[in-house]
Prior knowledge:
Elements: H1 2-24, E1 31-32, E2 38-39, E3 61-64, E4 70-80, E5 84-93, E6 123-126, E7 131-134, E8 157-165, E9 173-177, E10 184-188
Antiparallel strand pairs: 1-2, 3-4, 4-5, 5-8, 6-7, 6-9, 9-10
Amino acid sequence: xxxxxxxxxxxxxxxxxxxxxxxxxxxxxxxxxxxxxxxxxxxxxxxxxxxxxxxxxxxxxxxxxxxxxxxxxxxxxxxxxxxxxxxxxxxxxxxxxxxxxxxxxxxxxxxxxxxxxxxxxxxxxxxxxxxxxxxxxxxxxxxxxxxxxxxxxxxxxxxxxxxxxxxxxxxxxxxxxxxxxxxxxxxxxxx
Length: 191
């Protein structure tokens, strides 16, 4: 009898997880950030398999991941209007196994309610003021960042982004910390 109850519990859990995943993949609406800016809906990231081992064009910095073959190229770190900084980066899977980018791999439940497949765990470190900057969230505590991130098959690549509060103007370089990847020091913030 215990075996049957255990099996039923596992099946119910699997069905509930699938329903939750389906519900969270519904349409994205316009969101207001905590800096009172409005962000238009953006297309969801899609993985590609074209030359994942090749460096991303115009990369300004790069780092390797904990998993063999996991690699990130930073393509933009730029101040924008509204007192924010945009970070754009590419995750590549040059390894031989699927790279699962779900749960706490890149997301952070303490930052974003919809962290399961977003990049809310990424943050910037200000070495001048010794301050950590978290991804901007809207009034409903949803990150202003890439969401619905797919897992990466071997050879796959995906372009991602996140918006942060801007450090003071005298801060020209920051460290970028991305969960499960080595920190990237001294990345210049462009204007």
